[in-house]
Write a structure and sequence with these properties.
The complex is a heterodimer of chains A (446) and B (116). With 446 residues, chain A is of the alpha/beta class. Chain A is 29% helix and 23% strand. In chain A, a hairpin with a 4-residue loop joins strand 9 and strand 10 (138-140). By secondary structure, chain B is mostly helical. Classes of the chains: A alpha/beta (446), B mainly alpha (116). Chains A and B meet through helix 1, helix 8 and helix 9 of A and helix 1, helix 2, helix 3 and helix 4 of B. The structure holds flavin-adenine dinucleotide (FAD). Chain B: InterPro entries: DUF5368. Chain B: Pfam families: DUF5368. Chain B: Keywords: Membrane, Transmembrane, Transmembrane helix.
């Protein structure tokens, strides 16, 4: 049902479509049962809470803390004025949504009575209970929430130049909304001409590990819709021996790749790129390997931002030490060595959970524990690693993949929406309902 | 999805549709109230008018599906499992029922003799 032209629809189209369904659903909802209200606020007069980062996790934490606490002085520190709904990057780069779809402003979600310091944090000093901003301002705290997301380490790929995304078949959906849009231009051109399409993922922890896979499927479908699939070879370079960290999902993707004729190269870790020759270099167990491409989606290694990586908050040993992820308890998100510090969102050094969907489950847990500490109370609230990834497998269909720390599937709609099944309803959810859900999460309403 | 209560659904719909949500609610209330007023006033369902409304309703169902396809840049041809067919039926059904009720109410309330 998708024509290559006219993929972009505006809000007005939505409004027209929602006409019929919206009436009935909304009428049914405006009943007397207005559940979901937060518990009445507790007094926290004089408590100083500092939040580092005003992205998905930072804003959601601020909104919830304002609802739960009376009289606390809450400060959020972030220099970024724009807010990005990052899951939308994939849709922009897939030609499904317009360029401005993921973009809004930080200010519109900033809760009242929260002080926003518009600069970056340069240093975190948990022994001195303070953070230092880029301009040298010292901000003391009683409780610290670190929600600084992650750093896209493009610089560690030799030869990579973010400014050239969109040119010469270079794509990268992660670098931001403009890069995602430029990637759509490059991919669309590739879908017209064919050649070698190269897809990959980094050998580090990463946000939304499904995104590189989704983008492979989306590109495959654009080629098919333009009758050019036979002119193209699609290669997916996996960093290790699997396609996804959850075994049952990895197997499913393996079967889908076989069905779509996507060739897989296992144990390939990108180390460099020659943008002129259009060649990507990989480290493999048998030495360096080169793959020529006509279109590539570069996904950079991801690490903790420097302010955290260079602080005592990082893991000191184990798998998350080298990239500087925060050493938090995986159930409570409280720092293991500094009990008045919490790490929420991508920055948390936990086995899963670098998605916006995880943020939705992490935030209430961290808030419960912070409020309990502040009021001398107790809570059993715990985060089970819930991560969700609506994996688009073609334009018009997606699989709802939800799992926990132990690689169990934890479907939200068991018996109705089957996990690992390619469904239209999941596509409808992904393209229509997830952004509104995300935005209400930022406001502490969902 | 964690807390799936009606309030969350309401705020998500509000976020999705903005003020138009309330317009739609108003339209639904108008349709239902108008329908009830006409039925109570006349003490019966006018079968001719009902059949006419149902015919319009059929078109309403189709229109709902067309708009669903247009807005989701996909459509029922992408249906991949039973729940998808359920969704297709639901969208069609809501379009049908909503349009039928609204059409019945408007015809009944309109000060036009031929509208019965
Ligand atoms: C291409 C792509 C596709 C994705 N797809 C999905 C999906 O389908 N489903 C899903 O659930 N999730 C998806 N995600 C992941 C999701 O967007 C992130 O997991 C989520 O945004 C994490 O929230 P966060 O608050 O931890 O980080 P962010 O939202 O990235 O926010 C971090 C904030 O910290 C700030 N910051 C950084 N350093 C400092 C500092 N030193 N001082 C002050 N502030 C600082 C930044 O400016 C930023 O505002 C996707 C992400 C990408 C990029």
């Amino acid at each position: 049902m998708i024509s290559e032209k006219g993929l972009h629809l505006g809000r007005r189209d939505l409004l027209r479509f929602m006409g019929a369904g919206g009436v009935a659903v909304s009428a049914a909802l405006i009943g007397p049962k207005m559940a979901g209200a937060a518990p009445s606020p507790v007094s926290a007069k004089g408590a100083r809470i500092v939040i580092v980062g005003a992205g998905a996790a930072g804003l959601s934490m601020a909104s919830r803390l304002v609802q739960r606490l009376d009289g606390a002085a809450i400060t959020i520190i972030d220099s970024r004025k724009a807010h990005y709904y990052q899951p939308g990057f994939t849709l922009v780069a897939g030609g499904i949504k317009p360029k401005d779809y993921p973009v809004s402003t930080t200010a519109e979600y900033m809760p009242r009575h929260v002080t926003w310091l518009e600069e970056a944090v340069a240093e975190i000093d948990p022994d001195g209970n303070k953070v230092v901003t880029a301009s040298g301002k010292q901000v003391p705290y009683d409780f610290l929430v670190v929600a600084a997301g992650l750093h896209l380490d493009y610089a560690s790929i030799e030869g990579m130049d973010v400014a050239r995304i969109g040119q010469d078949g270079l794509g990268s959906i992660y670098a931001g909304p403009e890069a995602a849009f430029a990637t759509w231009g490059a991919m669309s051109q590739f879908a017209d001409t064919g050649g070698v399409g190269l897809f990959l993922r980094p050998n580090t922890e990463m946000k939304c590990a499904g995104a590189p896979l989704k983008y492979t499927f989306i590109t495959d479908d654009h080629l098919r819709r333009r009758d050019n699939r036979s002119k193209a070879e699609i290669i997916y370079a996996a960093n290790n021996k699997v396609l996804f960290s959850v075994p049952i999902v990895s197997e499913k993707v393996r079967m889908l790749f076989r069905d779509r004729d996507v060739k897989v190269r296992y144990d390939h870790i990108q180390t460099g790129i020659d943008l002129g020759r259009k060649v990507a270099t990989f480290a493999t167990p048998s030495g360096p390997a080169e793959i020529k491409y006509d279109f590539i989606n570069v996904v950079p290694p991801m690490r903790a931002p420097a302010a955290v990586r260079n602080s005592p908050l990082r893991w000191q040993d184990g798998p998350w030490a080298s990239d500087g992820w925060m050493e938090v308890d995986k159930a409570t998100l409280r720092h293991k060595r500094y009990p008045n510090v919490f790490g929420v969102g991508d920055i948390a050094g936990v086995p899963k959970g670098k998605t916006a969907a995880s943020v939705k489950w992490m935030v209430p847990v961290a808030v419960d524990h912070l409020v309990a500490s502040l009021t001398g109370g107790q809570t059993t609230s715990s985060y089970n690693g819930y991560t969700s990834c609506p994996l688009i497998t073609q334009l018009g269909r997606a699989m709802l993949v939800e799992f926990d720390y132990d690689n169990n599937l934890v479907p939200s709609f068991p018996g109705v929406i089957a996990p690992l099944e390619e469904l239209w309803i999941t596509w409808v959810m992904k393209t229509m309902a997830l952004k509104p859900t995300y935005l209400t999460m930022l406001r502490g309403q969902a | 999805m964690k807390d799936m209560d009606p309030f969350v659904f309401l705020v998500v719909f509000q976020e999705m549709l903005g003020p138009v949500l309330w317009l739609l609610v108003a339209l639904a209330v108008f349709g239902l109230a108008g329908f009830l007023i006409v039925v109570l006033r006349e003490g019966k369902l006018d079968s001719k008018r009902l059949v006419r409304s149902e015919l319009i309703g059929l078109l309403g169902g189709v229109l709902a599906l067309v708009l669903a396809a247009k807005f989701t840049v996909s459509g029922f041809t992408d249906a991949g499992g039973p729940v998808d067919w359920l969704l297709v039926g639901l969208i069609w059904g809501i379009g049908l029922a909503g349009t039928t009720i609204l059409a019945y109410a408007i015809q009944g309330l309109a000060p036009c003799r031929r509208c019965g």
